[in-house]
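Quick one - first record:
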Amino acid sequence: MGAQDPGGGDAVSSPLVVSESVLRKVLLSYFYVSVWIFLSFTVIVFNKYILDPKMYNWPFPISLTMVHMGFCSSLAFILVRVFRLVDLPSSPSMTPSLYVKSVVPIGALYAHSLWFSNSAYIYLSVSFIQMLKALMPVAVYSTGILFKKDDYKRSTMLNMLSISLGVAVAAYGEARFDMWGVTLQLAAVAAEATRLVLIQILLTSKGISLNPITSLYYVAPCCLVFLTGPWCAVELPRLRAMASFQPDLLTFCTNSLCAFALNLAVFLLVGKTSALTMNVAGVVKDWLLIAFSWSVIKDTVTPINLFGYGMAFLGVAYYNHVKLRGLKAKESQVSWGGSGILSCKSMTGHNN
């Protein structure tokens, strides 16, 4: 049977049309990945530039985080309430009781995660911070076991130990090692891992699905409130003493806009591709940041640094492979049972 003419119906799609469709999807995927890598790269380097005493010299991480949260919450409010471009979840609705029980703990952890992570840029190089972030799967898995969301498996724990060993080797070879900076970054990883697990427990389990804009709408104001206390105690007296400092509004507004755009890029990348794509893109971004830190910022990257991070990278890659294999097995079981296909968007890997 061949393809009939337009009047006869039942025409068969030509291979050329299929190839163009596949090519378009591939090009769009590369576009989403490129946008996310660019924005994530830009936000990290931009924050480093503002906070580092040797660059812009504005070492106030709580203030910078509050600027981000104030900007993001205001813009999210405008998009949701004024222009109504995004609908809030209606089933179940976000009641005051649910907000206090679910969103407030997540907002508190998010505030501390951003505060500690931004603070680390004052003391550590961009390359070394990216190496320390390889511990995220370890923290998420350990927290999941603690909250009984993950089962203890000896093979997985050995994998976590290999990642930890790789990061330890990278830390041993770090030329600009600062214990306080490392402590801050590890605290940021722990807070972020706990936040991710609590999102599963407090929101996902209740059937609440939030995209980046609605997440910022609910979480950013709460995060801003939790940062106010530390800001008044730690940074406000120092800011008052800097009477001669005139903040560059263009710099801070551009920085905040990049942070907001990054949230949208995450939603776009995961929504149009998968979390596995984001994890792979995250590895590419980390290597680019390490190369940029070494070649442009002139941070020292030692062979021991690279060897240790290489060990951690292999451990993270294997962990993602095992998670993907498990998700595909579940997907096959559901398909065989006639219940549809599972989504592969719940991977937990190397964070951005």
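second record:
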Amino acid sequence: MKLFILVASLCLTLSTVSSSLQPYEAIFNFGDSLSDTGNFLLSGALAFPVIGKLPYGETFFRRATGRCSDGRLVVDFIAEALGLPHLPPYLALSKGQDVKHGVNFAVAGATALDPQFFYQRKIGSVMWTNDSLSTQLGWFKKLKPSLCTTKQECDNYFKKALFLVGEIGGNDYNYAFFVGGNIKQLKASVPFVVEAITQATSALIEEGAVELVVPGNLPIGCSAVYLTLFRSPNEAVYDKRNGCLKAFNGFSKYHNSELKRALGALRLKYPHARIIYADYYRAAMPFYHAPQHYGFKSGTLRACCGGGGPYNFNNSARCGHIGSTACKDPSSYANWDGIHLTEAAYGHIAKGLIHGRFATPL
């Protein structure tokens, strides 16, 4: 039985499910701001990060936790569906802390490729963090001896653990796009990004992981930051149904198709492992198609929290900075701060994954 069928079978009775019936007893998460639960904030990469104060975290936690949203993320909803606690960030762990239910290694701003790739191309100065996917993998390897010691012990433990490898890779493209890179140039970097993701996935399997979920990228052409930075008077660059930038969504689909192809090869190499592709793109597109149906009465393209402009994204007054304001009801918006989604949007994506519709193979 596959991951999301197992999880879905629990969703109706989460409050009464006993631990003995749970398909997974731990989650280990790697990625960027779409799943960081506090590592960036704890890393000290920025002296005064806005994600460390309200309105970030206002919806669910009632305080800022280091999550780049108003509330919970996809990884939080998956943990809840499994009856597991929200994952502690790796950098918050104390000596001797019980981490048997898993750890979150994701860092906001992280890239799939190592920082050197960007510094060599003279765009390293715009990076939020140097804690790339390989750094996160190193953290996991460092933690592993506290999880299990013998091969048999590790095999028994990891067969009940779920590994989420991403979403990662979005920032590899964001950094380049935001400093003037074009789609043709960025397409040339896709094989390198995909290889970094698959190498990390392979490394985790070599460490004992057998149950892995690897998400693709979201439709960036529907993101307020892209819609603002690449706004055009030419109506032909937008899809009529959603108002998103067609070329940038096409780029996301290209990355995702290459990732799916690479994961197919990885399945042949590791037939004993279950490698599931999580289609974030297709899970998100329904609420861009029909915002009202999903409760987004204030829309999906305009940010809830921002400093004005057609999409409420202003780079000089971003969410949390002076000149920005947050909407009264984030649940009526899909976009939180121009770059990241609201808890409500992440909830819909998680629901689509948990019930199997956007997870393959099943």
